[in-house]
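Let's see one such:

===
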Amino acid sequence: MSLMGLGMSQDINLSKNLREIREYTEKNIELKKSHHFLFNLPLEANAQIADVIVIGLNPGEHASDWKLHNHPTEETNEFDFHNEFGNGRASLAWSKNCNNFLPNQKIYLSEFFFWSSNSTRKKDFEDRFGYSFEDCPHLDFCKKCNLDMISFHKPKLVVAAGITYAEFFSSKYNLNHVKTINSQTDKNNRRIISHYELECVSFIFTLHWSGAFGVSNLMKDEIKSYLSQFIQT
C-alpha cells in the first residue's frame, strides 16, 4: 500500500483509526492483557501536525503504570494516561531522548505493535500474548494505521529507534534501501543507521538511543548528526 493510495492528508481521519484500534483490542482478548496501547501520540499536546514521527517496537510497560491507572488505557492524541494520572509526558525519559535527538521538532510517537509489554524477548512476549513478536498476527493491522498516520502528517522524517528489526520491518512496509552506516567511533564498527525511504519520506532505523543498549555518547552524536540533515529548516 502506497502513501498516494491512502489519499491526501485531509481525507484521513485518525480518530477513525483510534476507534478501530479500541474495537480491535476488544475483539482480540490477549491484547486486553496490556496496560495500554500507543498510537498518534504528540510529545506536546498542542502540536497538531508532526515534523517527525518516531516509531518503536511496542510500548514498554511497568508495574508503576498499573499503579497510575489500574485498567487498560491508552497513549494517544485523544487521551494520554501519563498526562491524566502521572507527572506528564514531558517528565518521561523517552520524551527527553526524543527531544535530544530531534531538537525543536514537533514529534509524534507510534509503534510497530501498538500494545504494551514488559519486553519483546521471546519468552516474555509469548507468555503475554501467546506468540513471538516476529509471528505476531496483528502487525499488518498496525501497519495500515501507521501508513494512515504518516500520510496524514506528511512528516519530514520517520525514525525507528532500534535497528535489530530494520530488515524485518523494511520488508513488511515495502521500504526502499538507501544506505547503511557503521559507526566511526565504535571499536566494533557497529551499524548505527539503516536508511530507507517510504516513497518520498526518509524512514531511518537507528541504533537504540538508550544507554542500556550499549550506545556511547560518541555514537549518539553520530546518529544525531545524521538525523539533523533531515530536520533542518
Observations:
- The CA atoms of residues 81 and 87 lie 10 Å apart.
- The two ends are 29 Å apart (CA to CA).
